[in-house]
Amino acid sequence: MDCLFCKIAGGEIPSKKLYEDDSILAFYDVDPQAPVHFLVIPKAHIASCDELTEENSAIVAHIFATIAKLAGELGLKDGYRIVNNCGKDGGQTVGHLHFHVLAGRSLAWPPG
């Protein structure tokens, strides 16, 4: 499969890892949009939220629990934003489910 995030999860492409377990990987974004900007992905290929089912959706709960743990460890006490882009019009540029976590500055709303 020619998926950038599958290659990162598989160790074919290096990343600055923040957290890893058997099912997910968190790593810092190579083009950060905030002082703290990392991504959390499932290791199994799920193209987008559109491919979530009752059978595979537990991964999202695990991702969000891990984000909360990492936010605590990183001292993000002033808050953070979790972003998921789904599909071309939603701004998704990599066809692998992923969540951006942004923090370290005040984040405007609406995002654009």
From TrEMBL:
PANTHER family in alphabetical order: HISTIDINE TRIAD HIT PROTEIN
Short name of any one Pfam family annotated for the protein: HIT
InterPro entries: Histidine_triad_CS, Histidine_triad_HIT, HIT-like, HIT-like_sf
HIT domain span: 4-112
Organism: Bittarella massiliensis (ex Durand et al. 2017)
Motif Histidine triad motif: positions: 96-100
Taxonomy, superkingdom: Bacteria
Active site: 98
Protein name stated in the entry: HIT domain-containing protein
GO molecular function: catalytic activity
